[in-house]
Amino acid sequence: MFSSPTVRVSFLFVAIALVALVFADVAITAANPWKDLGRFFMGIVTPDFFSSEGVALALLRTVAFAFVGVALGGLCGFVLSLVYRNPAVRMFCAFIRAIHELFWALIFLQFFGFHPLTGVLAIAIPYAGIFAKVYSEIFEEADPTPGRLLPPGTGVVSAFLYTRIPDCWVQLRTYTAYRLECGLRSSAILGFVGLPTLGFFLESAFSQGHYSEAGAMLILFYVLIATMPLWVKPKLLPVYILGAPFFLGEGLPIVWGNVERFFTQDIIPSPLRNGEGMGGLMPWLGDVMATEALPGIWNTLVLTQIALVATGLIALLTFPLISNHFGGPVRRTGGHIFLVIARSTPEYILAYILLQLWGPSMLPAVVALALHNGGIIGHLIGRQSSAIDLRPDAATGFNRYTYELVPRVYRAFLAFLFYRWEIIMRETAILGILGIYTLGFYVDSAIQNIQFDRAMMLILVTALLNIGVDALGRFIRKKLALQTMPTC
Amino acid sequence: MSGFDLSGLTASFGGERVIGPLSLQVKEGERVALVGKSGAGKSTLISLIHQHVGGTSSLVPQDLGLVNALPVFHNVYMGQLDAHPTWYNTLTLMRPFSKDSAAVRALLKDLSMPEKIWMPTASLSGGQRQRVAIARAVFRKAGLLLADEPVSALDGPMSHLVMDLMSKRFPTSVVALHDVELALQYCTRIVGIQDGQIALDEYSERLTSADITPLY
Amino acid sequence: MALNIIRKLAAASAMLFACSAAVSAQTLVFTAIPDEDETKLVERFRGIADYLSENLDVDVRYIPVKSYAAAVSAFRNNQVQLAWFGGLSGVQARSLVPGSEAIAQGVEDQAFYSHIIAHKSTGLNEAEDLPEALRGKTFTFGSKGSTSGRLIPEYYIREAFNEAPDDVFSRVGFSGNHTRTLRLVEAGTYEVGAINFSVWDKETKDGNVDTDAVKVIWTTPSYPNYQWSIRGDADERFGEGFTDRVQQALLNMKDEELLNSFPRSGFIPVSNDAYAPIEAVGKQIGIID
């Protein structure tokens, strides 16, 4: 078995995670974690839909920010995808998508303040980078023959419209719709930093222990996502996209002088700003690296590696729940509901909830990341496994799982896992804002101390770390010849 | 000018030579059939010729190169994208002009499939798809036709109809065919390919099917 | 149907524009650091907004924020002109906005203090000095930018142990606000925490604290804290003498219910200089550059 490179790589990552576990801070520190969890579930089953006047408005705003952000990101991403061959464009896109929506929001909050533009750009910018990459991949995979058969004088635009767009249309549409779902999640968590979306109210309800109110908001959010096929219709899209900007709320007016100040003063490292010159910069940089960046990177890496393996375990354990080859329709429906909830809940919200219930450590973060990402991968390979035709006399039960199914889906499973490696790391960094000592913790601290130069430095470090892991993930997928479709 | 004179044609695949070096001259008005067993290099030769003569020819490749997501009309109309400005093409993509649809319908009628004009290409049978690719080549109105097994999926009467149409619409053509009878009936010259070389080159009227059989 | 939706959208957007035009005419916007549960804050500061708009003849609007830094940024970015800051956030904000002034503080804010509270499982009792037994316990501050929940307690912890809190305690967290610190220590999630006396007293008085589970084990010396700060360009924007009128309105506040919601017995004048000690401590700990 160890002769197979995929198995060897898997065990290598499990070993890394086990070593990381030694260094990780994993504990339940709450005195009564199960009592609190019980109260939370009671809240979910006794939702209070009418407690807060803001909930309906928050949902509307969540949808509006998602639509505007994704539409703008999609448009820019589409344009960028046309010139994606250019290495400079490629690098630019890799950079903007390596910075999480919440970090973008924290940046824009410092000079746009609570203006709707903050939320819109926080979604649109990283999404543009992701759209550019995925769209260009879709275009590359289109059949090139029709394009070669065109008469030589055909214009570039005509050729593109006739031979590329129709061929890629279904994929473009599917992916964009899928991204819209991701956009709803992104939009919801922006509330945690103060924008008027669902997260704002969820955080308030939770922190005050109003579990029934929080439960109602979560349920409404699931319903919103689960019913997307019903209310997101191609014909209604223009109405949504044109209408959404009017439902972002008015926020507070932008003072443009703040923008200039932010870029010309706030983010300039303080020794340079104070005229100490290069001589003062090195000690400053050294201090940021030693006291914040390095501990942040270490904790981010430790947590990411543990969460990655935990995600894999959850995916492998849960995919049989929805596979045709196991259980009856009742079990499968239950499995579907479980996986829908797991993957619809943003890991940030899951981590927030678990942190409140279990107390601060890496454990809530690991569980949140594993549940969300494992739910996504479990859903995908579960669906894939249902498409496998087994011989009529194939083994049943556990033997069927180990001999027939896992070997067949394992490559796809690994492909998804390594694809999500970078996504897990991006989220891990962000979870620091909740108080786990990953890079986000230090970014948030710097912002709380009004030290934006430090914050920007740390965000830059985070972006580079993500780009590095993304490249490593791609390298491993290439080495193992794993192919995958994009997920978010 | 729809004939060509090419020499020193070679092609290699994975370091192994599959074609040539060989020379081929085709005069205007000639209809050449490329025959030989599969793997002899007919398809490679067709694409080699296409690379050299480029845009002055209409190509029907073996895999047809249709845009499956578009209806038959647009796949045929694509043959004339260069004849119209971009805005016209864009509008046509959303709502075709009646004169274009009339022209395409007439052409499809000659291929006895006018009712399929608005069908998505993906939903057609293999033979219908082949005829759409041929319609696109005809609509292109180039002087030279390069076609790789254009009637392989058509039944007897239909393949005669299509061969007849092609010989009428194109003054000059080079068509790879595995059906020797069709080659003798519709082409003026037979070129036999064996192991990447020209093994036979003769006017059709001087040949019978028995002369060609050794190539297979 | 689509047409109907568009018509509704058009109407709604026209209304929105009308509203935002009215808002931007002459509105004093203020915020406050989110040091307690949001519901309480919204209730308290909506009352203040109504009170101020009655007394100042301008529209006054309160916006809630999610962090201390967001309050400071909003003040700095001129998206709010007035703010209820803590000692530290006030110093930070005023150093970023030239000409801005502290205009009023609560009577209690002249000599404010913080408690260190502990869960019963620690077995700690109230003492004169910070007990050595705190070492190795888990500890939570309030918000990272809080004066009474972080700055001052951290200062005294460093003084007593000669080490950073990270080295003294086995785990250091930031709960976010005082109410949450209280809940976390009460539940034993953290063994020890820092909370300001004002929230502690009010919650105890209201019967919201399980005094069997959590108790005060130490109290800091006093220091100046919360204050109302106003931007230096307020007069320019709202007319000559506006700053003085805001100050007078705050000082004249006699409504029991409003004052109790803080809770403060009344407001008194204050100046920027009163917060010099806070600034010194902030610099010493490295929170202020």
In short:
Chain A is mostly helical and 488 residues long. Chain A contains 21 helices and no strands.
Please explain how this structure is put together.
The complex is a heterotrimer of chains A (488), B (216) and C (289). Chain A has 488 residues and is mostly helical. Chain A has 21 helices and no strands. Chain A has helices at residues 5-23, 33-45, 54-82, 87-98, 101-109, 116-141, 145-148, 156-190, 198-207, 211-226, 228-231, 237-243, 256-266, 270-273, 277-322, 329-344, 347-358, 362-386, 397-431, 439-448, 452-479. In chain A, helix 4 (87-98) crosses helix 6 and helix 9 (198-207) runs antiparallel to helix 10. The mean pLDDT of chain A is 89. Chain B has helices spanning 42-53, 72-77, 86-94, 98-110, 126-140, 156-169, 180-186, 209-212, and strands at residues 4-13, 16-26, 31-35, 57-60, 144-148, 172-176, 189-194, 197-203. With 216 residues, chain B is α/β, with parallel strands linked by helices. Chain C has 2 domains: 2-110 and 226-285, D-Maltodextrin-Binding Protein, domain 2 (3-Layer(aba) Sandwich), CATH 3.40.190; 113-219, 3-Layer(aba) Sandwich (D-Maltodextrin-Binding Protein, domain 2). Chain C has helices at residues 2-25, 38-56, 68-76, 87-96, 147-161, 165-168, 178-187, 197-205, 234-238, 242-251, 256-260, 276-285; strands at 27-32, 59-62, 82-85, 101-106, 114-119, 138-141, 171-174, 192-196, 214-219, 227-230, 267-269. In chain C, the strands form 2 sheets. Chain C has a 6-stranded mixed β-sheet with strand order 2-1-3-10-4-11, sandwiched between helices. In chain C, helix 2 links the parallel strand 1 (27-32) and strand 2. The longest helix of chain C is centred in the first third of the chain and has 24 residues, at 2-25. The radius of gyration of chain C is 21 Å and the shape is globular. The interface between A and B is medium-sized, with 21 and 28 residues.
